[in-house]
Amino acid sequence: MTAVTEESVHQTKIPDLNFTVSQKIYKASYDKCTCSHSVCDTFKEASYYLYPFHIEYSLFASAMTYVMWKNVGRVVADHSHHSVKFRPKDVCLGPVTGILLVVAGVVTFIVYEVDILTEDKKRNQALRIHFIMNIVIVSLMCLSTVIGCIIYRLDHREHVSEKNPTRSLDVGLLVGASLGQFIISYFSIVAVVATGAKGYLNGLNLSWAVLMVLQLGLQNYFIIEGLHREPFHVMQEAALHTNAHAFQEHDMSVVPKSRKSRYFLTSSCDKPCWKRRVLKEVCAFLLLGNIILWIMPAFGARPQFDHPIEIQFYTFTMWATIVNIGLPFGIFYRMHSVASLFEVFLFC
């Protein structure tokens, strides 16, 4: 955590005016470096892109160290582990739509990175494209998450009652890391509303910030609910035993033995199959959506600095402190959401 704080404070230096703001923030500390070898330039450029990974590693290492400390001397009761099979053929619409979203996001991100270095007209166009693309991504993710939450309301799976340190860690990291992006969006909303939200860029920025807050809340609820639900195969086993008991109470001796087991399985599986499929589609789409929302800020997209409304309202030093503390947590949140959504996908 000290590494996160030191790196964030280090990035708050007021830069020169010869570069774009996003470049100046992350490259200002390397201007004084003098080296005669070409390898130095390589490391200099690479450090700009490796910075988010360093922050994520520090956050992840601190979380794992905390869990190790909490589990010293803990005795966990033995319990059976269920084998889970990953079958991509079970889903189609979610992955296809998600892949198209990732491709579109990467294309607009490249356009943004190229045009943001040019004159004001192309800079505004690049910002507009970037804002619109993010609004589309976040809106679709909100819609799919709402669908998943509705399926949870229709689903009657029981909640897991036993204590699980790993699940508690996942939930804690998820909620804690989401506060980083939430803080950035909150302060953006305050700045844009306080200045009157004049102009289409301010309107797009405000819409993106509001939708981001909504998406964070919905996705956190969806993932936490999925992690605390019993897996479908566990519920099917319980239904199988229930059906077997009911089957024995009725006079069904005319049914061949080879068809009895098939009767049990179909009676316990047919009903929830459509719910499982919808949940898997939602998880696959959200997983890919979080990947593209991780790629763009991790590899240099900084509309928070290229669009000057927040800098003018808060001053550069204060706004840079907010972003450079909140953004690493936001990037970590997207990475952790991918892992959590994959776990929910497996147990759907």
Lay out the secondary structure:
Blueprint: H1 2-10, H2 21-27, H3 38-70, H4 93-115, H5 120-154, H6 165-194, H7 200-227, H8 232-249, H9 257-269, H10 273-298, H11 303-306, H12 309-314, H13 316-347
Helix pairs in contact: 1-13, 3-13, 4-5, 4-10, 5-7, 5-10, 6-7, 6-13, 8-9, 10-13
Explain the overall architecture.
The protein has 348 residues and is an all-alpha fold. It has one domain (89-347). 76% of the residues lie in helices and 0% in strands. It contains 13 helices and no strands. Helix 4 runs antiparallel to helix 5 (120-154), helix 4 (93-115) packs parallel to helix 10 and helix 6 runs antiparallel to helix 7. It is globular and about 55 Å long. It is a multi-pass membrane protein. It comes from Perca fluviatilis. GO terms for molecular function: proton channel activity. One of its GO terms (cellular component) is plasma membrane.
Q: Which features would summarize this protein structure in a list?
A:
mainly alpha, 348 residues, globular
Please provide a brief summary of the model:
It contains 13 helices and no strands. It has 348 residues and is mostly helical. It is globular, with a radius of gyration of 25 Å.
